[in-house]
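TL;DR need structure tokens for one chain.
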Amino acid sequence: MVGELHASATDTLQRWSAPTPAQRALAEACLGFLAAREDACRRSCLPGHLTASALVLTPDGSATCLVHHGLVKAWLQPGGHLEEDDTSLPAAALREAQEETGLAGLTIDPVPLHIDVHAITCRGSGPTRHFDVRFLAISELACPTVNEESNAVQWWPTDDLPEVFDEVLELVSLGVERVRQTTAGSPRAERRPTHPGNTSNRSSGTSPEGP
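>> reply
TL;DR here they are.
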């Protein structure tokens, strides 16, 4: 499966039309790393490894489900390491989103939305880099649940986010724009409330291994 995942990740990034020159440069960095390392999709690759995450939006793009990362201590999109039985980056992103939010019926857009490369300390392996490929996932507004890897999970209005990193703001903006482009020309869907009033929070002493 690892070889299949490596080939699939390479194909996904080669086919991607990046939205900006900066994003194209990051895609090329990921492709270069994949070409240099057969183990680039394994978390055991200490110089760095690919990860996958998903921006979860409602069908109209009015709300996003974020998780509070126990290690980074910040609100992020769900995501994390690739597993040996993952067959593609979007499949891994979907799995991570389901595991970290507990939301059922998620659908994933197989075209990447955003890439971020950042330094991080992985539990058990020390300082490394994550070549994180982000995708768009769609979910109806439903009650999320928290697993052991996060401190909290919550829906937020996309126009009223908590304090987040700049790259998360960019990711949300790109996701909302893709939703608008996808639904352009279609009959306007009923707009759902942006404040679901349904939040799951739980303290956790476990440091997760997120995007």
